[in-house]
Structure formats: C-alpha cells, structure tokens
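[09:14] KT: can someone run the structure on this one? pasting the chain below
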Amino acid sequence: MYCDFHTHSYVNNDFNIKKCISFYDKVSFENFLNLNPKNDEKTKLALGVHPWYIDEEFFSYIKSLFSEISSKKLQKNNISAIGEIGFDFVKNDYDLNCQQDFFAKQLDFAINHNLPVIIHNVKGFHNLVQNIKNLKNVKSCVFHGYSGTYEEAMYFLRHNVNAFFSFGKNILNNSTKSLDCLKKLPVEKIGLETDCEISKTQNVKIEDVYKKVFDVKKIKNQENINNFMIQIEHNFDSIFT
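[09:31] RB: done, structure tokens below
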C-alpha cells in the first residue's frame, strides 16, 4: 500500500493509499468532516497553525477540539498530528518572534497530548536548533518536503529527535540536496508525500514519488520494492497511530 505522509487534498480518495491530510483553517477542516462523516481508518488528520497563515483563532479552535470532545471521538475522527507548523523566511510576512511563539506553543501542545508534529521549514534550520530541547520530547517529527542537507538531517537524529524526512515534489524536481539526502538516509527514517492542494487541477501522484525513489535508491527487483513499501508503511503507522 502507498503512503502519503503529507497532503492537503481530501477529494477522490484512493483506498489503496494511506494518507495524512493537513488542515490550516477551520472551514476546510469542517468541510472535510461534512463530506466524510465516517472517516476511513487509513486517512489520518493533522491540524496546525501554518507559518504562512498565523491565526490565534485557529489555534484556539484546535485546543477547543481537544478539551470539548472525548479522546475516543478524537481517535474516531483520526486527528493524529499537529501540523504543519514551523518557520518560513521566504514566503512569510510574520516576524521571527511571532513565528517562534506559535511554533513553541504548538510543540508544547503536541508534547502534552503525545502527538507527532509535521514541520514546515524554509531557511529556518537555526531556529529549529534553538528548539531542539522540545523537539526531543515530541512523539515524532515529520520534516515535510525536506530540502535540507544530509548533515542537517543527521543533526536531529544525533540529538535524539524521533525525526522522519519526507520527500515529494523536491525530488521530482531533482533538488540536489534532497536527492543526496534521500540516497544517504536509511529507509527507516524516510517518508513520501504529494503535498497536494485541493484547489489544484494538476497535482503530484504518490505513485510517481515512489518510482522516483526506487530509481534514486536503486531499488530494482520486486522483493526489494515490496520490502521498501512495507517499511514505509511501518514508518507511517509508527508516526500516526
């Protein structure tokens, strides 16, 4: 079974794909719930204040979900992660202090509720380093669309962060750093994603991401392909369940 570690699309669900859908606003999340009253177990949900869309009201809404409804219902709705959260110093109008404040309090929330986090990071490696103490205490961290170096990835692993590095559009676009990191990382620390948006007519297919990885990591015979897919599914399950 294919696994999509990070997407925003919730239409035309393929039942041969496990996926984690991230929401960064109340309207999209409630639209999803209305369209999917009986959410299937293969679909996991993540809610978080994205660094592009910093919104105190949405964070309050997330907290209210956890305080007003039972943990059993949260489990039924498959709310399984906080994210995406993080830093962006390219496409962001918010200053460092504001980004840091929302990142820190969402990390604390994830720790208190034993939830993984999905991290968005653009030119914010040093800011993540400054939060390393709390990152170590999170259940697991998925660095989505990972575009850092292999050495930066190893920094988190050496400091006992339960980190996974998710690849998708970046490797399809032949990002040198991403391809190098993908080649070197053990499969036990890899995730794969589409990062698809519901509003786009042309989106990445998770099958194409897998094919690219098979090529990059030189996985050729069917047995090795099957073993790789089993391990990626194990990674997904270990994070989101």
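[09:33] KT: thanks! The chain has a mean pLDDT of 91.
[09:34] RB: yep, looked fine to me
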